[in-house]
Amino acid sequence: MVPEDTQPVGYAALIAAYDLFIPPPHLLSAFRADYRVVEVPDWTVYTKRHAPEPSLAGHLTFALKYEGVDLLVLKSLFRAVGPGAIEEFVTAAPTSQYARRAWFLYEWLLGEAVDLPDALTGNYVDAIDETQQLAGRSRNSRRHRVRDNLPGTPAFCPLVFRTADIEALLKLDLKTEAAAAIGSVPGDMITRAAAFLLLNDSRASYAIEGESPPQDRIQRWGAAIGQAGGRSLSHAELLRLQELVLGDTRFVHKGYRNEGGFVGTHDRVTRAPIPDHVSARPEDLPALMDGLLAFDDQYASSMDAIVAASVLAFGFVYIHPFEDGNGRLHRYLIHHVLARAGFNPPGLVFPISSAILERIEAYRRVLESHSRRILPFVDWRATPAGNVDVQNDTSDLYRYFDATPHAEFLMSCVRQTIETDLPREVAFLRSYDRFKAGVEALVEMPDKTIDLLYHFLSQNDGRLSKRAREGEFALLTAPEVEKVESVYSEAFGGD
């Protein structure tokens, strides 16, 4: 709904004028016929001095200047207007950076040449304005005199805006903070902390999916996470990981889906699908996964590691290439990017899944930030087997999305890991070592018995229960029990 007393401009005007069947950007633009500044949710309202010429060139210039690059809108627009409109735009303003950027983006997105000679004048300009959005490595396009700094290929290129939250987190330099967080921690303690955090992360990754697998599967997946970043991603590697996640694959199709897919529920009576998210069509999976792997191989290393992990991992889970195991592989990809970039301190895997599990509602909102937006634009039919069969071309919905909320969320999770989770685990180990030394000074016990003693005390507010005193620890005298409880209190501060 356009705000009262305003006129849409930029992408909003172009979507309306050409009846583009696509989800609109998260933030749209309009202008008022006066100079009053107003605030409207989901809209930026400009004053009349910003009003563009009411034409394709005018609104496209406004969009590129003020709203950034939206590849999904632009590709749909370019298909609607055809090459002639771009030829007119460039011919009328051959040195305009916005005309040349539009020309470059047309040919980059559609893979079709516009009938124009190569640009001979005009300074080189960036395809992505890096003051607005995060870009990739730069390559000159001589034909357009444009620097191609798009962080991906036409097959897969989500974009991230420079919001205040992202700018603040980038300035924190979380990678340096991570190294500093363990700088004074003894190596053996880091090893012990790493082992616990890794197992806990594996357990949390299953918990996010609502699963409680046996311990051996948790340990097996934890071992895989511990190797993240050590192997290059490929189609074969993703299949290997899927088999590792699932274990028993007798009742699951291995490899990329050969039919539709969705996330959601079924009607209890009819078994009709009720999707919250519809996955990419099976016929689009080879090209989409090629694009995703190309992003990981060619672009991720030139970007901030957390931003790259957000793009790769959330892009993967939206495509949903497998019948099962997508969620855990999605979180594995976060570990993969961070570990390969050397973001983690040596020997340590960030418990990303644990941080996500603690803020599961925010995680779901982030997933829905794109899923719910694209759902009305997916024409699907229910199959007799209770699946979905998509009727229209939806591939671009998974290639080009605004990954800003995803980057903000993942950055906050990594920050929590560095500033809270890791110090908390190290503090626990220090307290536990004090407790263990105190107990050993009182009475000789095997390590496993000391650990059992700790668990009894921790579960009963630092007091040894009557059952424990009469059972596993009946050999302790009353004075020894009192001293053990005192040792626990001193070690853990009464917690």
UniProtKB/TrEMBL annotation:
<keyword id="KW-0067">ATP-binding</keyword>
<dbReference type="InterPro" id="IPR036597">
    <property type="entry name" value="Fido-like_dom_sf"/>
</dbReference>
<feature type="domain" description="Fido">
    <location>
        <begin position="233"/>
        <end position="383"/>
    </location>
</feature>
<dbReference type="Pfam" id="PF02661">
    <property type="entry name" value="Fic"/>
</dbReference>
<keyword id="KW-0547">Nucleotide-binding</keyword>
<feature type="binding site">
    <location>
        <begin position="324"/>
        <end position="331"/>
    </location>
    <ligand>
        <name>ATP</name>
    </ligand>
</feature>
<protein>
    <submittedName>
        <fullName>Filamentation induced by cAMP protein fic</fullName>
    </submittedName>
</protein>
<dbReference type="GO" id="GO:0005524">
    <property type="term" value="F:ATP binding"/>
</dbReference>
<dbReference type="InterPro" id="IPR003812">
    <property type="entry name" value="Fido"/>
</dbReference>
<feature type="active site">
    <location>
        <position position="320"/>
    </location>
</feature>
<dbReference type="InterPro" id="IPR040198">
    <property type="entry name" value="Fido_containing"/>
</dbReference>
